[in-house]
Design brief:
Chain lengths: 465, 141, 141, 465
């Protein structure tokens, strides 16, 4: 295939990837967008095969590789539970990171095949681009593995802080720069692998001090990294699809990290420096006697069946308890009874951007009943009941009122403005941010202590009486 | 006769020297021609390193990424993470190249590993996104 | 003697023919070398026409333009018209080139006219935009 | 200067132009944005001079050209009345169009200097790009001149329709394509000038059948054209700044045209085909006797001074009468009296996108008192008075209710929902769309017939009593 035409096709696939992300601006266009993405990938693969014209044997290998990986991927995609999305994305990132390292290694071992010079005489520019790609790729790899382990509960979510880690990281960073310079001058394979090793270690060290709850920001950041790694290799291979896609993915991850940090009212730096939010702490016992009104499923059913308007506020606890299906059932019962039901989603409810939306969608909640904070916050004042299920921090009024609170300034859902506020959670414990919620002790609040799914199911049953 | 021969050989020498010169000139010709075009070519981009173009493409793609991602509705942020992950596996082009034509077996081996890894991503990423997106439904009236 | 001379001249002929061949080979060399690098170069972009890159830049810039213009607040649509007009006069680079280095006097003349025209735009466009924008004020409390 | 570095600088100037448009997303960042634009232009010019290194004589010529043009531009920018913006923009476009033609001509006469080949042997690709650039440039030139003449009232705004013009245009279009092919094969200068001539004629023929009132859409479309012309020449010159800027300007003009057409609920094609909306027609006399309540300045002053909330709806008539300063004075008086005053701007009020905003800004109305349709339309129901000054079509309820109306489907400002609706205009005549406004005959409406400026000034006086 003509190289110019190939480049043109790579551009087309880059544009299709842009269209894929563009489709996500609305649910109705999103499926179409995903299709564009697949077509773009198909074009990129076909073009490369047409350019490279591999021998039959090599072609067989390619088919084999695609089949093995594709099979694993397809099965995983079908089987995975929606609640495990954060882990899955982290695991997938690690694959891209490792693949970037492997591609760079292949380029170093067979530079002629990649058109970046001959063995012993690789272009300096290509070496620089490649070592950037390989370093970022390796960091993405181990970083994502750690993130996966923490998110999947296979490793404690507690931040693991080693003394002097900032010093060690800085030293590793400097070592990396020195190694890259050495690689450019010597082109030694040993040094290449030293770069890989240093980056792998750096990836681990950068992520282990970050608490499990902060992992979503990390996953998004690593997403961004995998983009920059792809772009760097795109420069080496002179491939437009890689450069464009790398930039897209790089921006995307960075923006999502930013959105999360802003939603939590924390700085990105403080997240990255780590040591925050390990395990959920118990309610602070500050000695003051405070009374809590506790209710039963029957109370809750009675209250809601007689309400005009109920707003449901889901949070991380709903995801943990997998309560979304029971919740939809409850909402259906209420709607059948003429109650106006809406869902209010805080930008950082759950542990991943859009986490609640995807779970509600899974339970067949129509997306036009689900509202963002700005669009629904004014409606709480007219609501009879706010049904807060497994959410905590995103309702905490101390973000609004208490300047000394660590989450002060974070926008919250004004559930306290509703006539009655029902809190479904297992204890009076705190949420992700580890701070007490004064709302539990408020007059209009009724606590429904228990597992979110069980409690909701009981309420549904009680509604039938 | 010797004289004539000498003359002929001299001629031969001279001729070959002249030709060698011509050859050298010719060898330098592309460079020379470019040097002549000078600022003209510079302005027309004739001599511009492809890196500059790629860099421009990279910068503009960052702008596009910035805007296109901000325009994604928050309700679809989880699918966004999945799909960007899927498209980042376009690094498959490097892996295909390595498996397909790498002269060294070890390079092809690295390529094969890379190919398997990103294939997981390509299929897994797009399919899981599709699965998620299929769940977003409007109220049926 | 005649024979020897003849031989020498034959030799000369042969030599020059051989050299001519060599020269031809050399002239074709760049092409040949490229052909050798083959798919490799093709993939690395070594032989890609700058037009392809420019086209990619053009396409991405259209995307950027689309997003950046939609993000302009309607209240500033009039200044937007003025400022896009001003920046479209970046065509001044062509005019400068014509006046600056055009070999033909007539070309330089065309360039001079173009230069004057776009200068009106450059200064007029940016200044009138500035004047307009300076008027947009917040309520002073 | 190194060609790579120069290209990099051109990229920088392209990015600065992007930042210039980006700044316009909010008034506070807009001035900064304009500054970026100026810096971008400065970089583009300096880079070109550094690359070309002209002789002292030529350099003098350049300075002369910049000085003459710059002087004229600066004086024009300072002197022009804000109400003449549409004309000014049209005039400026024509300059860019003509300049594009001149640059292309220079390239044809001295191809070596532009690196596109040698005389008699210009690259075919460059010839194609150039002829596209020159054709679009020439159309932009004459088209903008006609638009300017119509907007400035130096030519009748009436659509001038020649019989068979679609046929003539099509023939010219085909001729252009043939000429471009001939140019590429023959490289004849004569054919180049024939292309220019055909395009100049086409530019005139395309625009004269379009009514004066449709000119804003045309101006925006020509803006877009000037961008595409610049981009085409950018390909010829291999200049990144030109390519990027051309694409930006091209998109911008196209989007603004689209916004205007959507705001008017008309198709772009129908605008371009022309023959619509020449002179304002008088109110349709359909024989039905209708009563109009007419009021005086004193009545209006009394009504508004005793109101709680007044919403001002400016339209084209305010621009014609230059009533914005008087209006601001009136609003100040009301505010001093404790009345809540807001401005409501319809997306196509006036004759240019953002027309009303710039006039109000000129009269020192703070932009946070000025609201867009979607943001204020629900407030009319709570307003005591809607003060409609020189607006007509944008308030016409037939767009909402009457399916047979030519503007049916266009969003309108719901001034009829206000307790009282005051209409300041000179007659019961119709506006741009030439259709009657039933609102004039409604119960809650009071007509204040007269020039917008004079009437408002009288009201201000009456308020002092
Ligand atoms: N969405 C994101 O992108 C993102 C990213 C990073 C961090 N975050 C952070 O995550 C937090 C999200 O707020 P949130 O209100 O959704 O959650 P949260 O504040 O973490 O609170 C979750 C609550 O759910 C309860 N819970 C846990 N398991 C439960 C079960 N099985 N049944 C019932 N309740 C259960 C817990 O209380 P009990 O233990 O008493 O049951 C806990 O208080 C915010 O602080 C945000 O900053 C979000
Ligand atoms: N903004 C844009 O981008 C744009 C572009 C293209 C077209 N348009 C079209 O322009 C129209 C804009 O609507 P509009 O409501 O602003 O204007 P309009 O419907 O054209 O009405 C303007 C009114 O102002 C009155 N008027 C004129 N001179 C006056 C003066 N000196 N004093 C007082 N009144 C005066 C006229 O009535 P009298 O003659 O009775 O005084 C006329 O009815 C829409 O139809 C829109 O589609 C807008």
């Amino acid at each position: 295939m003509n190289a110019n035409f190939a480049s043109f096709l790579y551009l087309v696939s880059g544009v299709l990837f842009i269209m894929a992300l563009r489709g996500l601006s609305h649910p109705t266009t999103s499926r179409q967008g995903n299709l564009y993405g697949m077509i773009g990938m198909g074009i990129a693969i076909t073009t490369t095969l047409a350019l490279a014209t591999p021998s039959a044997g090599r072609f067989g290998l390619i088919v084999l590789g695609l089949a093995i990986g594709g099979g694993v991927g397809a099965v995983t995609a079908r089987r995975i539970a929606m609640t495990s999305m954060p882990q899955l994305v982290a695991a997938f990132h690690s694959l891209v990171g490792l693949a970037a390292v492997m591609v760079a290694a292949a380029a170093i071992y067979a530079p002629e095949s990649f058109g970046i010079g001959t063995a012993g005489d690789i272009h300096a520019q290509a070496l620089i681009e490649m070592s950037l790609g390989v370093a970022i790729g390796a960091i993405t790899f181990t970083g994502s593995v750690i993130a996966f382990l923490k998110l999947d509960g296979r490793m404690s979510g507690k931040p693991i802080t080693i003394g002097g880690r900032h010093f060690i990281n800085a030293a590793l960073g400097i070592a990396l720069i020195v190694l890259i310079v050495l690689l450019v001058t010597s082109e030694s394979k040993l040094i290449f692998w030293l770069i890989v090793a240093a980056s792998l270690v750096l990836g681990i060290l950068l992520i282990i001090p970050i608490g499990g709850a902060d992992m979503p920001v990390v996953v998004s950041m690593l997403n961004s990294y995998s983009g920059w790694a792809a772009a760097a290799l795109g420069f080496t291979l002179g491939n437009l699809a890689l450069i464009i896609t790398g930039a897209l993915v790089g921006s995307s991850g960075a923006i999502l990290s930013y959105i999360m940090c802003k939603g939590m009212n924390r700085s990105f730096i403080s997240v990255i420096l780590g040591g925050f939010g390990g395990e959920t702490t118990a309610a602070a016992d500050d000695g003051i006697e405070r009374t809590v009104k506790q209710g039963s499923a029957d109370d809750a059913a009675y209250l809601m069946m007689n309400a005009q308007k109920v707003i449901i506020v889901p949070g991380y606890g709903m995801a943990v308890a997998q309560a979304q299906h029971a919740l939809r059932e409850m909402a259906d019962k209420l709607k059948a009874n003429g109650v106006d039901v809406k869902y209010a989603i805080h930008p950082v409810a759950g542990r991943m951007p859009g986490h609640m939306n995807v779970l509600l969608a899974e339970a067949n909640v129509p997306y036009d009943e689900v509202f963002e904070l700005e669009d629904i916050n004014s409606e709480f004042a007219q609501a009879d009941v706010a049904y807060v299920i497994g959410a905590n921090d995103v309702t905490n009024p101390s973000a609004r009122d208490d300047k000394s609170s660590p989450i002060y300034g974070m926008p919250i859902l004004d559930v306290d403005k509703a006539r009655t506020c029902l809190f479904v959670k297992r204890s009076l414990g705190s949420g992700y941010a580890g701070i007490d919620n004064t709302l539990f002790y408020k007059d209009g609040t009724m606590m429904l202590l228990g597992d979110a799914k069980k409690m909701t199911e009981e309420i549904v049953k009680a509604m039938d009486h | 006769m010797d004289q004539t021969l000498q003359k002929a050989l001299d001629q031969l020498d001279q001729a070959s020297a002249a030709v060698r010169l011509a050859v050298q000139n010719l060898a330098n010709a592309p460079g020379g021609a470019e040097a002549a075009g000078d600022t003209a070519h510079a302005l027309s981009g004739g001599t511009i390193d492809p890196f500059v173009f790629r860099f421009a493409i990279f910068v503009l793609a960052i702008f596009v990424g910035y805007y296109v991602v901000w325009s994604v509705t928050p309700a679809l942020h989880t699918p966004l993470m999945a799909v960007t992950n899927a498209i980042s596996s376009v690094i498959v082009v490097g892996a295909l190249l390595a498996v397909g034509i790498a002269a060294s077996g070890i390079a092809a081996g690295f390529g094969f590993v890379a190919l398997m890894l990103v294939s997981v991503n390509i299929f897994g990423g797009f399919l899981v996104t599709q699965r998620m997106l299929a769940m977003y439904k409007k109220k049926d009236k």
